[in-house]
Design brief:
Elements lengths: L1 E6 L7 E4 H5 L3 H6 L3 E4 L6 E4 L4 E4 L5 H5 L6 E8 L4 E10 L12 E7 L7 E3 L13 E6 L5 E7 L5 E7 L10 E10 L6 E11 L7 E2 L3 E7 L7 E4 L2 E2 L9 E5 L5 H6 E3 L5 E4 L10 E10 L6 E11 L7 E7 L2 E3 L7 E8 L9 E4 L6 E7 L2 E6 L10 E10 L6 E11 L7 E2 L3 E7 L7 E4 L2 E2 L10 E6 L9 H4 E3 L5 E4 L10 E9 L7 E11 L7 E4 L8 E5 L8 E4 L1 E3 L9 E8 L5 E3 L5 E4 L10 E10 L6 E10 L4 H33 L1
Parallel strand pairs: 1-7, 8-14, 16-23, 25-31, 33-40, 42-49
Antiparallel strand pairs: 2-5, 3-6, 4-5, 6-7, 9-12, 10-13, 11-12, 13-14, 15-18, 17-21, 19-22, 20-21, 22-23, 24-26, 26-29, 27-30, 28-29, 30-31, 32-35, 34-38, 36-39, 37-38, 39-40, 41-44, 43-47, 45-48, 46-47, 48-49
């Protein structure tokens, strides 16, 4: 076995040893013996030059990688020689060099230490690691200069060294909250290598300081009735501690009364004292508030101060209006001076601020009368009319004499009770109605309507029919007509006949439901309009049913001689009575003619021997109605030679017939006048 020693990290080709020399053999013989180098590891760190017998480094050798922290590190080789076969064991010791500095796990470490930590307290620091061995490994630590900590290095049996910070002087966070140190690790190499770690120490606060107010007492001045939320004063206390130990909470001391706590409130965060209740000078003129400030440390520390609040008096009490007596309803016929309400007024303020004056609007029919100090009566000042104004809101205004004055308004609702002081009034003074004769029974002829401005029972109306003065006593309107008592619809009991009744007038009376009832009347004129319901009636010549009237004429009659005249009368009026006469049929239509309006029948030409001796004429009388009605009459004309008696009779008939047109004219004129009216 052959042993060599070489330092780690040699370059490739570096000389390790001469195997031929160390084995005592010839180099040529080694070359002829087929020399081979076999390594126990996976890597070939060495090679042999068979020509020279020199062992050289073929790969980088890192002792820390091969052997770690072992104090000694070896690599083993085997040399194989043929003819004869021989094996040689070679042991190469790898010597450590100082190629690694000590290294901390991190570049910086943070510690949090309570400011009341005891002296001598130890705070371990993670040690540095140096993979070298022997004197090249970590040997010592150095701590930067400071006022509070020393360094203690703890050595273990395995040679490890662990640094510790030892508290030598008490900490004070309020003086210095952070300490910054540098720890240096150094090995024993030549030259030595080192590394550093920064140590940040945060001093944790301890509740060792109590809050301090910036002044022992505070003063403020407020006017009474200050709005809720008004700032009274803002307290300021400080605590040099930090975190919860320096976090201050404000509160009202338990020494304060419950009433004071209802008036003032303090914000525990900001220390603002604000008004949360009513400030009344009449109840208290000065308030003294005890306040305490506590920190949130454990245990808590507190401080106290007082706040004096002076209240300034103002005119803060409005007058009060008290109704001693009041009636919300009033009859509309109440006389002026009627008492509606008795009012008492008062004001809690004193002096001029407690004097009260009352008034109501001059636009209302009411007035105030001062009975004596602090009492008024509300009276009616004029006549009332419910139909004009049915409801009043009387505002009683009470004002004091303060600066500025305060007032209070009280509304008195007054409802007027209706009195039946208004008679019903028709919409029209009179009504004119046109009714066609033969109207249906029960048809509505007219609707009369009246109104009463009164209310409820006093405005409930009832209608009735009365006979109008100056009318025919035989024409009782209640016989023909009826009226609905509530809606005023006038209906017909019977159909009207124009030929019997052309005009009817009557009164409609309306009465309200008051007591006593009030009434009114309206006049209704009913005009019956004629309908074409009568056919013409022939007055001449008179003939029975299914019979004809005969007339005799001489063969020598000279045209246009009058043979006869058809006289007819129509009971209708107007166009319905305008008659026309028509020759509809005749034995010889060319021999006779009938006048369209007068009904005269005349011969139109001289008789001839060939003409018939008897002629039958059919005359139709027709009116002008829609639709028209008609009546027919048959005339028989005989051609005969008569003596003078016969002719005289014919002339007499003609004379009788000649007297009729005047009567017809009178009838027509009368009918036209009636229709016009």
């Amino acid at each position: 076995q052959i042993r060599y020693s070489i330092p780690e990290e040699l370059t490739r080709g570096a000389f390790v040893g001469n195997i031929a020399k160390d084995l005592g053999t010839d180099v040529a013989k080694l070359a002829a013996a087929n020399l081979q180098v076999l390594s126990d590891s996976d890597s070939q760190y060495f090679s042999v030059n068979v020509n020279t017998g020199v062992i050289m480094v073929s790969e980088r050798i890192d002792r820390e990688q091969l052997c770690g922290q072992n104090p000694r590190c070896f690599l083993h080789l085997k040399l194989a020689i043929e003819n004869p076969v021989e094996f040689y064991r070679i042991e190469v010791e790898i010597l450590d060099i100082n190629d690694n500095p000590p290294e901390f796990p991190s570049d910086e470490v943070s510690l949090r230490i309570y400011e009341l930590a005891s002296l001598g307290a130890r705070f371990p620091i993670q040690p540095a690691q140096d993979p070298d061995v022997g004197t090249n490994t970590l040997q010592t630590y150095h701590l930067s200069a400071n006022d509070n900590f020393n360094l203690n290095v703890k050595a273990r049996t395995d040679g490890g060294k662990f640094p510790e910070l030892v508290l030598e002087r008490a900490l004070d966070r309020e003086f210095r909250a952070f300490h910054y140190l540098v720890l240096t690790a150094e090995d024993g190499g030549s030259p030595p290598q080192s590394s550093k770690i920064r140590i940040t120490i945060q001093v944790l606060d301890a509740n060792d300081n109590h809050p301090v107010f910036d002044r022992p007492s505070y003063g403020a001045r407020l006017v009474e009735n200050s709005p809720l939320g008004t700032l009274v004063v803002k307290l300021n206390a400080t605590d040099v501690d930090e975190g919860p130990n320096g976090d201050i909470r404000y509160s009202l001391s338990s020494h304060n009364s419950a009433a004071l706590r209802q008036i003032f409130a303090i914000d525990e965060q900001t220390g603002e004292i604000r008004v949360q209740g009513n400030l009344d000078f009449e109840e208290a003129t000065v308030y003294e508030i005890e306040v305490e400030a506590k920190d949130m440390g454990s245990p808590t520390m507190e401080e106290h101060c007082s706040v004096v609040v002076e209240i300034t008096d103002v005119n803060d009490n409005a007058p009060e209006v008290i109704l001693t007596s009041f009636s919300s309803t009033l009859s509309e016929d109440a006389l002026p001076g009627t008492v509606v309400a008795v009012i008492h007024v008062r004001d809690k303020d004193s002096g001029e601020q407690g004097k009260v004056l009352c008034h109501v609007s001059p636009d209302l029919p009411f007035q105030l009368r001062k009975d004596y100090e602090h009492q008024y009566s509300l009276l009616t000042s004029t006549r009332l009319d419910r139909e004009h104004v049915a409801y009043y809101n009387v505002t009683v205004s009470a004002s004091d004499l303060g600066h500025p004055p305060l007032s209070r308004h009280t509304i008195l609702p007054i409802t007027l009770i209706d009195v039946n002081d208004n008679a019903p009034q028709f919409e029209q003074a009179s009504y004119e109605v046109l009714v066609a004769e033969n109207n249906p029974v029960g048809s509505v002829l007219v609707t009369v309507s009246a109104a009463d401005p009164d209310s409820e029972q006093n405005s409930r109306l009832s209608y009735s029919i009365l006979r109008a003065g100056g009318t025919d006593p035989g024409l009782d309107p209640t016989r023909y007509l009826s009226i609905h008592p509530t809606n005023g619809q006038v209906t017909a009991k019977f159909p009207f006949d124009y030929e019997q009744t052309t005009y009817l007038q009557f009164h409609v009376e309306v009465s309200d439901g008051g007591s006593p009832a009030l009434r009114n009347r309206t006049l209704v004129h009913v005009f019956v309009v004629d309908q074409n319901d009568n056919a013409p009636r022939v007055h001449f010549p008179r003939a029975g049913e299914d019979s004809a009237t005969q007339f005799r004429i001489s063969p020598s009659i000279v045209p246009p001689a009058l043979i006869t005249k058809v006289v007819a009368i129509d009971a209708d009026s107007g166009r319905n009575a305008w008659l026309s006469y028509h020759l509809v049929e005749a034995t010889d239509l060319g021999l006779f003619s009938v006048s369209l309006r007068s009904g005269e029948v005349r011969i139109t030409r001289a008789l001839q021997e060939t003409d018939a001796s008897a002629h039958e004429l059919l005359v139709v009388v027709r009116d002008a109605g829609e639709p028209p009605l008609s009546t027919a009459v048959t005339l028989v004309v005989l051609v005969e030679e008569k003596g003078p008696e016969a002719l005289q009779g014919s002339e007499a008939r003609a004379a009788d017939a000649g007297g009729l047109p005047a009567i017809t004219l009178y009838l027509i004129v009368s009918l036209v006048l009636i229709s016009t009216v």
